[in-house]
Amino acid sequence: MPTYDVLLVEDHTIVRSSLRAMLERTGEFRVVGEVENGAEAVQFCRENSAPDLVLMDLSMPVLNGVEATAELSRHCPTARVVVLSAYDEERSIVEVIRAGAKGYLLKRAGVADLLEALRTVALGGSYLSPQISNALFQRLQSGDDKAKRNGDLSPRESQVMRLIAQGMTSKEIASALDLGVETVRSYRKTLMKKLGVNNAAGITRLAVADAPVAARAAVSG
Fold it and tell me: Which of 26, 63, 91, 101 has its CA 20 to 30 A from that of 139?
């Protein structure tokens, strides 16, 4: 039986510990790292051998699951992301699959479902939690959906928008996303133009209004 290396990305220590214990009992999965947020996940994968699988929470500080998945797709494309989330809003599913996730599993799913999801994705497939329609997954992959961002933002613009909404400066955003400060300032200008606002407060207001209800607390601090 092959053994797959897994990186756990979850901001709750108890949840990470439980996942580690459960996965390592199988003898099929080896947890090679644990991190608390998306930025740390990207850093881990860039500084170490990329794991086979990344089991990622959706709602986290610094970089959330969508943003981190997009960054991992860019920097560590061999690491296949499975999102483990409490939320089943269509927008969340749309965003993270578009960002590159290969699986989406609800936290209320059973252990057998989690192991099946990890095995399926490790072998090159895609997995959607049984509680969510398979037809929805196919529709999302084809791009036939209505969950469009304000102003038709790119994934990178959406990342910058969320970090602005968290109160981060251009310098802090540049560090988190591994960009130049002037590049971040350029994104700010583009965002204001696309969203029809003239300051960071306007960007923040639209970010909060556009965020899934379950994620608004994280966006607003």
Answer: 63
Return d(Cα 152, Cα 149) in angstroms, integer: 5
Contact present, 72 and 54 (Cβ < 8 Å): yes
Query: Cα–Cα distance between 36 and 33 in angstroms, integer?
Result: 10
Structure tokens at 132: 């969510």
Domains 4-142 and 155-219 are alike in CATH topology: no
pLDDT at 148: 43
What one-character DSSP code corresponds to residue 142?
H
Contacts for 201 with CB less than 8 Å, ≥ 6 apart: none
- The mean pLDDT value for 2-29 works out to 93
**CATH code for residues 4-142:** 3.40.50.2300
Nearest alpha-carbon partner for 91 in 187, 197, 174, 211: 211
pTM for this structure?
Answer: 0.63
**27 Cβ contact list (under 8 Å, min separation 6):** 1, 3
| Mean pLDDT over the full length of the chain | 81
Q: Going by CATH, does the domain composed of 155-219 fall within 1.10.10.10?
A: yes
Distances (CA, A) of 45 to 83, 84, 120: 16, 19, 21
Lowest model confidence (mean pLDDT) among 53-62, 96-105, 192-201: 192-201
The domain limits of the chain are 4-142, 155-219
CA distance 90 to 110: 21
